Amino acid sequence: MTLFLDSFWRAVAYCMHPRVIALSFLPLVAMVALALGLGYLYWEPALDGVRAMLEGSDLLTQLWRWLEGLGLGQLKTVLAPLIVIFAVTPLIVVFSLLAVGLTMAPALVRLVAERRFAHLERKRGGSLALSLLWSFGSTLLALVALVLSLPLWLVPPLILVLPPLIWGWLTYRVMAFDALAEHASKDERQEILRRHRLWLLGIGVLTGYLGAAPSIVWASGALFAAAFVILVPVAIWIYTLVFAFASLWFAHYSLAALERLRAERPPVARPVEPVAAETLALRDESPAIPPSGA
User: Fold this and answer.
1) pLDDT in tens, 131-159
2) CB atoms within 10 A of CB 35
3) Distance (Å, rounded) from C-alpha 20 to C-alpha 70?
4) In a domain, 277, yes or no
5) Residue 193 CA from chain centroid, whole number
6) pLDDT for 272-292, tens place per residue?
7) Which of 11, 34, 172, 294 has its CA 20 to 30 A from that of 281?
8) pLDDT one-digit tens code per residue, 10-38
9) Residue 270: helix, strand or coil by DSSP?
10) Is the pLDDT confidence value at 109 over 70?
11) Predicted pLDDT of residue 294
């Protein structure tokens, strides 16, 4: 618990660092360009498809008539954008996490290592190729889990529980690996993930719930169409800052855990170099020096 809380407050403080704020704009530019480009191409077709699905349901048609009788007929025009927004939000979250992991996480880990753990030996137990493979494999599993859990989102409590849990698991998988890739060996990384699995997963789940908070801003763009272009970049930037905070939290926790793990192990004694046989022979053959009084 001490390590958990200490790394949390340190991550909060590091979020105010000018380098962290500057780095947050790198994935922001890429994600905003991607979101606006896909929105320009597919926003209207997606809305038309959702409206056609809603109008094709007899049950919903009766519901619309009842709402129109109550003077709430405008809810029909709001519902289609909201459905599209909530369907796209998990993908935006996942790609924001990957963008932070690829562009910000290495620099943030280096920042933490330079300021707190400069003495730690870098054993480079995880290569860039292995990190990419690990991230994309974990992302694929998270997307499969999101798709399979979609029917459960219709149950009101579960829609507030399942997506953050899946995002938190993905955050834990990606961020914990990246935090240890440079400094820990493969055995050390596996040992830390085994010992601290629940705490690291807890960090991921908490940041997963923090990542769900910007969805309010994101969904507001559907309600206020005039501000949609402004609110979407704001929401994506908040996602970026949340995952940057998660990267800092994992870096502080993981490197401190690595430092403790190495402190537990006794230092390896350096073997004494044997004296060469030639040296011993020279000592035996050298003439004895007579005492000074002889």
Assistant:
1) 778 878 888 888 888 888 877 776 767 77
2) 20
3) 51
4) no
5) 15
6) 555 444 544 545 554 555 554
7) 294
8) 988 888 888 888 777 777 777 777 777 77
9) coil
10) yes
11) 44
Maximum distance among all alpha carbons in the chain? 130
Q: Which amino acid is at 151?
A: P
> Which structural domain range is residue 115 located in?
2-38+77-263
Does 120 have pLDDT greater than 80? Answer: yes
Q: Is residue 102 part of a domain?
A: yes
Q: Which two tokens stand for residue 95?
A: 């790609």
Cβ within 8 Å of residue 186, ≥6 positions away: 125, 126
Q: Compute the radius of gyration of the chain from its Cα atoms.
A: 28
Give yes or no for a contact between 193 and 261, defined as CB atoms under 8 angstroms apart: no
pLDDT at 253: 92
Query: What contacts 12, CB < 8 A, 6 or more positions away?
Result: 245
Burial 169-179 (b: 16+ CB within 10 A, else e): bbbbbbbbbbb
- CB count in 10 Å sphere of residue 210: 20
pLDDT average, residue stretch 204-221:
68
The structure's pTM equals 0.69
Burial 78-97 (b: 16+ CB within 10 A, else e): ebbbebbbbebbbebbbbbb
* Residue percentage of the chain with pLDDT more than 70: 68
DSSP secondary structure string for all residues of 177-188: HHHHHTTS-HHH
Domain presence at residue 33: yes
Q: How many domains does the chain fold into?
A: 1
Residue 283's pLDDT is what?
52
Closest Cα to residue 253, out of 212, 201, 211?
201
Interatomic CA distance for residues 174 and 176, integer angstroms? 6
Alpha helices in 182-276 (DSSP H): 186-195, 197-212, 215-223, 228-264
116 part of a folded domain = yes
Nearest residue to 211 (alpha-carbon basis) of 156, 263, 167? 167
255-278 as b/e: b if 16+ CB within 10 A:
bbbbeeeeeeeeeeeeeeeeeeee
